[in-house]
Amino acid sequence: MRQAGRYLPEYRSVRAEVPTFLDLCFDPVRAADVTLQPIERFGFDAAILFADILVVPHALGCVVAFVEGEGPRFDPIDAGGIARLNASGAVERLAPIMETVARVRASLDAGKSLIGFCGAPWTVATYMIAGRGTVDQAPARLFAAEDPETFARLIDVLVDVSADYLVAQLRAGADAVQVFDTWAGVLGEDDFEHWAIAPTAEIVRRVKAAVPAARVIGFPKGAGLRLERYVEATGVDGVSIDWTVPLAFARDRLQPRVAVQGNLDPMKLVVGGDALDRAVDHILASLGGGRFVFNLGHGILPQTPVANVARLVERVRAWRS
Ligand code: CP3
Predict the structure, then answer these.
(1) pTM (2 decimals)?
(2) Among residues 183, 198, 273, 284, which is most buried (max CB within 10 A)?
């Protein structure tokens, strides 16, 4: 999940050197620097590439802006815009990000992993259709229900670019890649199959065809009970679980199949103290016996006290099953 960001003073100072958030994503020297900052400060075992899921629509020619305090904004795409989308050349426009990957891999200890990523087609499409983040992803759900054929074309383009982009990240030095489907949870049963599982399964298939040793992690946030089906049908090697997933379910139904990553409620990390310690211990006691990566259940919040992150790392490191 997100490691860098506004909770770190060293991130805020690098961020202040460039005009916009996207400038930072496309500046390999600075992006590599902020990717490594949390590793240098806390000694995590893995770094997550500093970039954003919305660089893919940017590479497809959508004009994306990150408005301070409001989040991403772009012109909503319509059926005509979808018909005109052209995946060719898109990954080439993301070349600075592959340079970031190479730079990070070159300065990261051999024993530490670098995780690349992209957004899942459904989640990226929700932003493209609405032109912004939305509470219930209603614009994309409506579009997909009204005109499934055009929506499928958008998803297909995103599958093409995302698969090539992940392959490029792996070739540049990423050790694993994660597919973030932040808004998978709002989809009904059939739509979850069509718009979350099928595109992710196709991305996993293409990535592994190009890079057989590739390791892919899926994060269908809010999928709940459907995580089991997601894991089976997509072919991911690992699954990230959000903080609402019951630990016994994760242990009994997911961990025998794949590695599990998660799932501390980011709010517990804001609060700290005993509440944090208890939540950490519960996760470790439940999942620590199997294939497991301790992580948050979603991205770190900007108001998180740095001292709480240090406390968390110390507690996880001291744990013995
Ligand atoms: O932490 C890291 O170093 C990893 C880099 C990373 C970012 N975004 C940087 C970022 C990753 C893995 C993401 C993924 C991402 N981006 C997702 C999927 C995962 C999730 O969090 O749900 C989504 C949905 C986005 C889209 C996005 N990017 C939104 C909605 C926002 C605005 C919300 C906010 O917190 O302001 C962003 C901005 C963003 N991307 C920030 C960072 C560090 C915050 C901007 C800043 O700190 O300058």
Answers:
(1) 0.97
(2) 183
